[in-house]
Amino acid sequence: MAKVIIDPVTRIEGHLRIDTEVSNQRIVNAWSKGEMFRGFEALLKGRDPFDSPVITQRICGVCPVSHAVASCKAVENSLGIAIPENARLMRNLILGSNYIASHLTHFYQLSALDFIQAEAILKYRGSNRSLRNLRTWVEQEVASKKILPAAPFLPHLKGDYPKDQAWNFRALQHYLESLDIRKDAHTMAALFGGKMPHTASMLAGGVTTRLTPDLVENFRVRLLRIRQFIDETYLPDVLQAAKLFKNYADIGSGNAIYLAYGVFDEKDGPFLPGGLLQDGQQRPLEPKKIAEQTFHSYYREGSPRHPYQGETLPDAEKDNAYSWIKAPRYAGMPCEVGPLARLMIAYKSGVAPVRKRVATLLAQLGWQERHLNSVLGRHATRALETSIIAERMELWLDQLTLANPTVGEIPSTTSGQGAGLTEAPRGALGHWLTVEQNKIDNYQCIVPSTWNFSPAGQEGEPGPVEAALIGTPVATGSQGLEAARVVRSFDPCIACAIH
Amino acid sequence: MKITRRTFLKDAGLVVGILGLSQSAVPQVAEALELLASGRAPVLWLQGQACSGCSISLLNSESPSPADLLTRYLSLYFHHTLSAATGVAARKVLEQSIADERTVLVVEGSVPAGMPKACTLGDETFNELLIRAAKGAQAVVCVGACASFGGIPAAQGNPTGALDVPTFLQQAGIEKPVINLPGCPTHPAWSVGTILHLLRGSLPELDELHRPKAYYNELLHDQCPLFAKYQIQEFARLPGEDGCLFKLGCQGAITKADCSMRGWNGGVNWCVRTRGVCVGCARPEFARDRDYPFYRIHESATNGPRDKES
Ligand code: SF4
Ligand code: SF4
Fold first, then answer.
1. Which of A361, B76, B140, B170 is most exposed, with the fewest beta carbons within 10 Å of its own?
2. What is the pTM of this model?
């Protein structure tokens, strides 16, 4: 049996190693290994609970807003703080902007180079200015005789990159163009958030930003331009990739146990609802069924613990451990979280815009529902979700009331216990908190990539990505490109997963 | 291969000949060529205990734009989040970059000095890799609070014994020019400005903590739009109230950075303008002490925040 190791997995957030065993040109075994630990939960102990949105945002520079939302909610939930309407809406808008930036970056900067023949640029003869500049640059780089010309675009792993030059040119052009669009999404988040990454306005009790008409219209103008890019460029590019790599609608299927906590609070509940979807059966979310195991993780002990009882005691030398990521389970089951899980649950729950858009997507691609559970299905649902959320953001923007407050009253309660459940771009995110006399007594986070990239559990059952890798067909002499495509479709964020 | 002045003069001679210029133009052309080449000095970007926020912030650069940065200004030999090279290809690229003595090493994130296995890459610990990479580099740029001063991983409790990069390298006996660009994250203007300065072949002027004076010379409090409120002692006591944020916990008065002048994300906003406190993310002691909360919500609002030196 041949071993193929991908270490480091680049074009993701953080330090991830993937080990696979290949037999008869298929992956038969896989290990997901998270390789960087900081210990946020230990650092939070003894701090003021209001510190937690500032600290936990720094878990991740790609999705800081989700951590801010989760920790604000956890503090509000534990101390009984209510927030005004404007704060709820602004959180949705800042979070929505973060989703857009994160999803665009994921497709173009992180994933697209697996589906593009970058060298094709040398054959470009068209008149697009940015592509001509790119060609000239690559030519100069090659002529310069430097050891690594055209880095970071080259070199890449060997593999089946497309020969369709029109696609290669178009995708490269959009790689460059999307850089400005994702930056603009960050600017949008900063209008209400103060700065990005790591916002300054989000605190338990509300959002400090004062609403003014120019702020709202500044946001609106940017949103319109970004929506145009999402609908006219991003989504069509993903559909085109799906047509070019048809086989990847059957590769990378996960265990089809989908979990979501619900996100984007509206008056009568989250816009995208939470729940558990298993064997096509949808059930309401029961957070008490969540527990984390550490049998194969570098932490002392191993027995499953609900996050209120959770602990984080590192043991870098532990036998049998192979990852710094813990293994969260829902009623003992590994679950897939992320845009695919979110949209499947919203679809089954009958959320109108989601039902319509998913049906259209399936028709456009000639797919059955099962094709969504694949590498391409994850990219497609992520793009579709970006469009759906961006559209909804206009509604939230219109619901802001300039004259009303943005921060609620902060009661003098000093002890309590609470959870903040939301969704990050990569899936279900929870912070669990116990406060004693105004100090954090225990803080536990279970982050989307903790779910997806978890190692094997107590029964030896593989984590979701490990399971999705098993069965992946690989070319003779593969250096791991096929596995990397499967892994990246989950949009790994390892700084998040371990924290 | 090291490109010398002589190579540039030779190349310049050829260029002058081809363009039909007089020989007196040779030194000028040589200089231009040298600048062009040095403008592309390779950058090796490593991530230790980091959140990638400084990398994401780099992509928010206004001018040059991120696309220009990638394809005109930087020769980004390796970057964890951007390199096409992955797995075996990435390992090879890393080794080639380390071997190139012109490399400018950029480090994002702290070093788990007390628990080396808390960050690994390939079969090597990040700590070992960092030492190898720093030995071969012409200069080391620490982006962000974590690399410069330890940041949040090194906050009280510090379970991995996280250290800032300059102290770690010093303990390993490595002497290289070091530049600190604190901030959580680093503002793209600070990182881009500094890297471009370096690639032009000279060190920017630094203060005693190795921060470029161009960005970190003044307390941001002095340029704050709420400074007038501070002077007339009009203070907000709770979030959402009018007035200077000093008594709410704002650390602007002890933080050296140009946020209040420059703004963030294209200048559309910054912490205090959005009426959040400055949490002192550019300070050496950022987040360090658990007994000093960022927001002084629960204490009697009569005492001002601590006045430690920055
Ligand atoms: S808000 Fe902060 S930076 Fe501004 S004047 Fe007050 S203390 Fe200084
Ligand atoms: S104002 Fe303070 S907290 Fe905000 S970015 Fe500047 S130094 Fe950091």
1. B170
2. 0.94
